[in-house]
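Troubleshooting: if your tokenizer reports a length mismatch, compare your output against this known-good record of 267 residues.
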Amino acid sequence: MRGYEEFDKITEEELWGKYAEDHDQKIRNYFIEKYAPLVKYVAGRVAMNVPSSVEFFDLVSYGILGLIDAIDKFDPKREIKFKTYAVTRIRGSIFDQLRAIDWLPRSVRQKAKEIERTIASLEARLGRSATDEEIAEAMGVSVTEFHNLLLRVSGNSLVSMDENWYLNDGSDNAPMSIEDTLESSDTYNPDVAAEKEEIKKMIAKTLMDLPEREKQVLILYYYEGLTLKEIGTILNVTESRVSQLHTKAIMILRGKLSKIKEGFVEK
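Known-good structure output:
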């Protein structure tokens, strides 16, 4: 990058080490400029699940705050790549700001909760994942109306990465977020590590227990990094149908993970 030619002579690992020592403003600006495209990428993916009234520029602005926070807090000694760490911080910053401005109408939130409750109730009674037809019937609407509802509440399907879980680490009700299970801690505690691994396994099992189509959508979207349009091409369905499947999958996950969370709280 122009203006940073001096940094071309050293490795990025060495540059991180230097920044950790003296927090040189020029190095910080270098990292901000270098990883700015990552902010646009994350903002673009979040934008697919929020109403058009939320400006993309605003999402980028929120994400930049997360990038700066990631740069300031990144520890090069940890066994984690900066991009992985930064994506979590960028997404978290965007979500925090969206929650702060309460960007979803109350009616949409209420409808989302109604769908979640219906899905959870049906799964508890049936002992399996409920079909769209069964959910629609339980809600007293047609399948088409149910699909339209999924599209309306799609913006509510953002999963909070910093929702607190109970962590038995020797302190009183010490919280741990889902995000924390993805990062290394400053100190190693066998009990904490074991509980993190238990949560990870539960989340992975919950994902695998989803209906096949919904599971495919989440894997392709979150793990493979594909867009809804690209996923639609692979599954041979429309982009709006992929959005519906994504929203339904997140609602199923929320219900299942809430039960897991309650189990940890009761420990």
